[in-house]
Structures are given as structure tokens and as C-alpha cells.
């Protein structure tokens, strides 16, 4: 998190003090570093420079229009999982020709929208979905480019809720079934087979699972080629983890070296779907301490950000570092909790935290991915603003919702 540092006793995002943003925007507020995002894109681009490749940012990680717009300007493609995400990409200036569409439950409306937008290809997750895509393509007079999302039954060693590449999961198609489906689809006039896809999970911090999946994919692709199935792309998904605490994670360069070495003989264009690794450590959630409460042996630091703003700790038990915006060396064991009427409304439990007092500002780190994008209006709380910092300036890229916004679509 090199773009969040203390200067003059105050925590900054790039060259902007976070207390300045909190004073002008109120709290809670999401703050992102544009430079941090661009740096991660450059790391991917440099790491895969020697082979044909396309970086398709996973929109679900952070779907703000300004974030997408900048990524499009930097030449990045997009991985989407809904018609709404496709709409965001196109509205932000992205091109359908650099979009891949994942997800096991695509609707007719979404498929039609994607065909009309001339997306690069669909990642198909079942025979039934392939049939629906073919029928929709026939009705719209289009030919659908598809890649089958294969399931290699690899344990990625991550949280079970974000593991996607095992037989017990709803995602993808087992390799033997995918083989038969490829042979079937190449006879369908509405379908153009263009690739093979694999995505085994998210927040993966070891290279072993990737290596195992690549071995299966290499053998699978070789078999398909021997049987005359024409392929252009190998979509190896995303999932590369980041450090939330003290995890040792593979560098982008090390990850790329493994992928390139395992696939270079196949002669295919690589498609990568990074999300968290692009935006995760580029963001923080700034929140203000409202009360300190001692109850029995527990000390609760109550802040104005709740699980509706950042649900990852409640949903996954996820760890986020908590920094004081005003530098301090004093610490205490406490729970950092929000105002929501749920016992799961916490950011940190029984952790060594800065010794906060009411009115102090806390920065919840590594919140750029799956932070705002998973937020909600639970407890009828307006969603918070997002700001994007570049150097010594920042811009508001999403305004704070009002109470009127909460009921805008109700009758």
C-alpha cells in the first residue's frame, strides 16, 4: 500500500491528506488512488509483454464508471458477469470487442444485449447455456463467439465462498463433459468456438493451484487441437491474491512467468481477468469513531461505517488492516464495529488497534475491491461517496446518497 503513507503525522492517499477528504466529504467515504491502479495495470502489461495477451479487468471488483473509464483509456478490456456490468463498460467508453462474459446464469436479455454489443466471447458454463446462446444468436441473426469455462477440480486453497474450480461448485464444466460439448458445438452454425477458459477462485496466494490447473488445461487444449477444434484464446481467469495483512503473495511477474511457460507452446492469445489485484490495495474506507463502549471484558470502538458499507468481514471473516488517520503509536485490544443492528456488523474483532477516541478517523485498508461494489442500503442507510485521488487533487466519482435516493424507485 505504497500510495497510502504518513506525512507530517497525517495519513495521505498519494499527496492528499485523508482528514482533508473526510472534512470536505464527510464520513464514511471510499478513497482510491488512481496511480496505484495504473501501476498494477502496468505490472500486468509488462509481465505478459512477450506473448499475445488481453487484460480483461473483472468489473465486479469495483464497478465505478470513473474507474472503468480510466482502465479503458489505459487499453484494458473487461470481464463482466451481468448485463448491468456490460452497460457500465459501454457507458464508460469501453468497447464490446474487448469484453468477455462470465457467469453460470446468463439470461436471454443479457445474451441478446451482449450479441448486439459484439462482445469478444461468452464463457459458457453449461450445455443448456450453450443451447440458449445458440438459439438467441439464431433469432438475432448473429453468430456467437464462445469459450467453454472448464472446471479442472483444483482446490485453490482460498476461502470456500470464493473458490470456483472444484466439482462441488456451480461454475464451469468438468473436463470430460467439456470435451464432448466442444465436439458438439463445432457443428452448430450459430456458434463459433474461439477458446478454452478456466477460473479456479479468488484471493489465491500460492502458485501451486495455478500450476495444477495449467497442467490440466495444457493437456486438454492439446487433445482438442488433435481432434480439429480450432482455438484462438486461452482465458486463464483471475484470482491472484493481495496482501490484506502479512500474507506473502506471488508477484505479478512470478505469476506471469508460470503462466507463460506453461502455455507458450499452445500458440494461443492469453486472456487474464485480474480484479482484486488491480484495485484492492488502491482503496481505503475512511470512517469516524462515534463512541467507545466497554462491556464486560470487551472494548468496542463504534464507527459510522457499517457492514452495509463493507461486508467482507461479516461475509468472509476477512481481515482488513485498520490505521489511524492521525499517526499514533498507542494501541489497545478492541473490536471495531459499526451501527448496524446485527452482531455480524464488525470490521475487526479482538484486534490490536490504534487507541481511538470519539471523533478520531480510522482508515480501513485494502478496501478498493469488493468494498463499495458489495455495499447496500441495509437498515435504510444511504450508500457512501467514492473519491479518486490523483497526485495532490481528488475528484468525487460518486456522490453520497440522500434519504430521497433511498425511496426514489418506490411507490
Tell me what you see in this structure.
The chain has 411 residues and is of the alpha/beta class. It has helices spanning 18-25, 34-47, 65-73, 83-91, 108-116, 127-140, 175-185, 208-226, 252-263, 276-279, 312-316, 403-406, and strands spanning 4-7, 10-13, 16-17, 29-33, 53-58, 77-80, 99-101, 121-124, 144-151, 173-174, 191-198, 233-235, 269-272, 283-295, 298-303, 322-324, 331-337, 346-354, 361-364, 386-390, 393-398. It folds into two domains: 4-32 and 280-406, Lyase, Ornithine Decarboxylase, Chain A, domain 1 (Beta Barrel); 34-276, Alanine racemase (TIM Barrel). Strands 4, 14, 15, 16, 17, 18, 19, 20 and 21 form a nine-stranded mixed β-sheet that branches. An eight-stranded parallel barrel has the order 5-6-7-8-9-11-12-13, surrounded by five helices. Strands 1-2-3 form a three-stranded antiparallel β-sheet. The model is unreliable at 161-166 (pLDDT under 50).
| Rg estimate, integer Å | 22 Å
Average of the residue pLDDT scores: 94
- The share of residues in helices is 25-40%
Q: Name the CATH class of the largest domain.
A: Alpha Beta
pLDDT under 50 segments (min length 5)?
Answer: 161-166
* Class per helix and strand makeup: alpha/beta
- Let me know the number of strands: 21
CATH level-4 homologous superfamily of the largest domain: Alanine racemase
The description of the largest β-sheet is: 9 strands, mixed
Coarse morphology = elongated
- Percent in strands: 25-35%
What's the number of domains? 2
Q: Alpha-carbon distance between the termini?
A: 45 Å
Amino acid at each position: 500500500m505504497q500510495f497510502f503513507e504518513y506525512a507530517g503525522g497525517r495519513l495521505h492517499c498519494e499527496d492528499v491528506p485523508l482528514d482533508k477528504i473526510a472534512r470536505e466529504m464527510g464520513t464514511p467515504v471510499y478513497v482510491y488512488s488512481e496511480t496505484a491502479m495504473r501501476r498494477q495495470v502496468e505490472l500486468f502489461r509488462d509481465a505478459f509483454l512477450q506473448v499475445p495477451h488481453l487484460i480483461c479487468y473483472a468489473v465486479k471488483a469495483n464497478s465505478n464508471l470513473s474507474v472503468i473509464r480510466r482502465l479503458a483509456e489505459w487499453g484494458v478490456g473487461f470481464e463482466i458477469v451481468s448485463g448491468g456490468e456490460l452497460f457500465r463498460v459501454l457507458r464508460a467508453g469501453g468497447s464490446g470487442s474487448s469484453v468477455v462474459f462470465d457467469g453460470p446464469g446468463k439470461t436471454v436479455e443479457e445474451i441478446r444485449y451482449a450479441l448486439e454489443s459484439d462482445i469478444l466471447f461468452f464463457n459458457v458454463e453449461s450445455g443448456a447455456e450453450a443451447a440458449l446462446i445458440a438459439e438467441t444468436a439464431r433469432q438475432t441473426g448473429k453468430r456467437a463467439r464462445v469459450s467453454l469455462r472448464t472446471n479442472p477440480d483444483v482446490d485453490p486453497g482460498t476461502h470456500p465462498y470464493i473458490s470456483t474450480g472444484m466439482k462441488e461448485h456451480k461454475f464451469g464444466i468438468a473436463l470430460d463433459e467439456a470435451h464432448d460439448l466442444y465436439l458438439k458445438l463445432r457443428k452448430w452454425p450459430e456458434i463459433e468456438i474461439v477458446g478454452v477458459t478456466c477460473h479456479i477462485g479468488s484471493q489465491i496466494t500460492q502458485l501451486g493451484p495455478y500450476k495444477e490447473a495449467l497442467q490440466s488445461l495444457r493437456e486438454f487444449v492439446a487433445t482438442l487441437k488433435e481432434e480439429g477444434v480450432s482455438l484462438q484464446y486461452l482465458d486463464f481467469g483471475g484470482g491472484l491474491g493481495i496482501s490484506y495483512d502479512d500474507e506473502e503473495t506471488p508477484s505479478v511477474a512470478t505469476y506471469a512467468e508460470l503462466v507463460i511457460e506453461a502455455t507458450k507452446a499452445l500458440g494461443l492469445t492469453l486472456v487474464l481477468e485480474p480484479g482484486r489485484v488491480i484495485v484492492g490495495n488502491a482503496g481505503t474506507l475512511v470512517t469516524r469513531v462515534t463512541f467507545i463502549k466497554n462491556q464486560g471484558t470487551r472494548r468496542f470502538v463504534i464507527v459510522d461505517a457499517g457492514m452495509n458499507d463493507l461486508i467482507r468481514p461479516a461475509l468472509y471473516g476477512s481481515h482488513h488492516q485498520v490505521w489511524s488517520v492521525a499517526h499514533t503509536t498507542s494501541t489497545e485490544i478492541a473490536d471495531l464495529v459499526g451501527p448496524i443492528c446485527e452482531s455480524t456488523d464488525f470490521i475487526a474483532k479482538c484486534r490490536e488497534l490504534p487507541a481511538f477516541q470519539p471523533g478520531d478517523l480510522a482508515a480501513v485498508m485494502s478496501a478498493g475491491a469488493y468494498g463499495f461494489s458489495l455495499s447496500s442500503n441495509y437498515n435504510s442507510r444511504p450508500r457512501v461517496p467514492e473519491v479518486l485521488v490523483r497526485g495532490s487533487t481528488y475528484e468525487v466519482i460518486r456522490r453520497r446518497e440522500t434519504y430521497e435516493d433511498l425511496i426514489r424507485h418506490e411507490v
